[in-house]
């Protein structure tokens, strides 16, 4: 007969840096699981004290871990991983788990001993909890990959959110633990880090599941919809893209010898450089980077990506002569596009 004092198999790491509004809901969703409680632990990593939240944490046997005000998301996650005891890591911030989330994760990792990375589907909600549409394509069935066979294979999966949303990601702890120093340097998009580091090492098995086990909360202040006017949007976007370049550069240094993974990170770094340049901060873009960008877009075998790539390259080339006009056009067009996009999602 199993005892309740055994080591937990899953560690749920909840991060809440200066964000307490949805923390109680997130904690409750992690507690309200069909999986036996002795099979998982919950760790809350936060940089604040709150009497009510701390009482809930203490009453439910949750580990309450405090971090620095200046810490990055990577540092908070690394601290949680260092303190965790489980073999499998699940992540949560201000999103929500469905009750069957952890049981499903438990079953998948028990069934496939070589599984390194599991990504589940999600419903998308606004800040009030209302259901909204989002850009992620939906799968018809679970996709199970025992190895990475080609760059094309991975590029096709990006539209399904392969490395999007930490609250949909579960990984083997032993894949991430050797790279905690690098994780501490990550200031944005830790979900990208989790995927690439997990599947960089053998075994490289990963599953992209159609099961919707997470509610992902879309904030108007998120990286998708940041800014109240064109200048505000440009400033926030440029700051975000520079952070992305730095974070992706850290990942690239680890995986740069991998012929399938490294090009995807390289592609995203080049795209971010394009965006920064077109948003009004001149940045050097080489001819080699332009040709790489075209090549990666072609490999995605997606007409939209192909058209988008040539659109951006055309603007980059035109900006050599009409830089200020191109910047004004691009900022205005994207501000209006993101505004309509947000209104569309919210009204659906």
List keywords for this structure.
Spore Coat Polysaccharide Biosynthesis Protein SpsA, Chain A; alpha/beta; 2 domains; 348 residues
Textual characterization of the structure:
The protein has twelve helices and nine strands. The protein is of the alpha/beta class and 348 residues long. Strands 1, 2, 3, 4, 5, 6, 7, 8 and 9 form a nine-stranded mixed beta sheet that branches. Helix 1 links the parallel strand 1 and strand 2. The radius of gyration is 21 Å and the shape is globular.
Secondary-structure blueprint:
Blueprint: E1 10-16, H1 23-31, E2 40-46, H2 51-59, E3 63-66, H3 73-83, E4 88-92, E5 96-97, H4 101-111, E6 115-125, E7 143-145, H5 151-157, E8 169-172, H6 173-176, H7 180-183, H8 190-200, E9 205-217, H9 230-255, H10 262-278, H11 287-299, H12 303-347
Parallel strand pairs: 1-2, 1-4, 2-3, 6-9
Antiparallel strand pairs: 4-8, 5-9, 6-8, 7-9
Helix pairs in contact: 8-9, 9-10, 10-11, 11-12
